[in-house]
Amino acid sequence: MLDFDLAERYGIETAQLKRAVRRNIRRFSGDDFMFELTKIEWESLRCQFGISNKSERGGVRYMPFAFTELGVAMLSSVLNSDTAIEINKGIMRAFVSIRHLLLNPPEEEVKELRREMKELKQHLEEVFTDYNDINEDTRIQLEQINEALAELQVKNKALEKPRLQIGFNAPQYHKKTDD
Questions:
Q1: Each residue's pLDDT tens digit, 147-173
Q2: What is the sign, positive or negative, of the torsion defined by CA atoms of 16, 72, 63, 5?
């Protein structure tokens, strides 16, 4: 992250952040904490992110510092803003939590999860077995119903007699033609 972005997040001026870094430069030695951008790197970033020119020098008097994650953590320990103090406390608490977790792995919780997963797997297998049995029973019952309906249709056709026509039957008249 760049110094002006971090300054905004920490609630301080960029110049104040740079002064704090320079006063504590030994804490930031090495490129794994922070480094100062070159003019070429800065120009490349300005073009890439569309940072506008605020003056003839591009709005900056000195090239920005770029901080790594280690540098951001170190920075929170040298700044004196309320936000920086809270961030530093959070980082320290995270380190303590991770150390505690590494020294005391939650083996009982893992064993409990494994046991529950095994029980759940067995239950699902039983449910699917029951489901397949029900499907087979249902299929057999549907076949029996279809057979019974087919038998009933055959019996009904055998019992059917020709029906008498209901209603008024008009006599049909035929014209006689002379040949």
A1: 888 888 888 777 776 666 777 766 666
A2: negative
- Cα(78)–Cα(70) distance, integer angstroms: 13
- The backbone region for 58, taken as left when phi is positive above 0, alpha when psi lies in -120 to 50, beta otherwise, is left
Indicate the DSSP class of residue 2.
B
Say if pTM beats, i.e. exceeds, 0.70.
Answer: no
Residue whose C-alpha is closest to residue 12's, from 84, 90, 88, 65: 84
Interatomic CA distance for residues 128 and 111, integer angstroms: 26
Please enumerate in sequence order all residues whose Cβ is within 8 A of that of 110, keeping only pairs 6 or more positions apart, or say none.
Answer: none
Q: Domains of the chain: which residue ranges?
A: 3-103, 107-150
Amino acid at 27: R
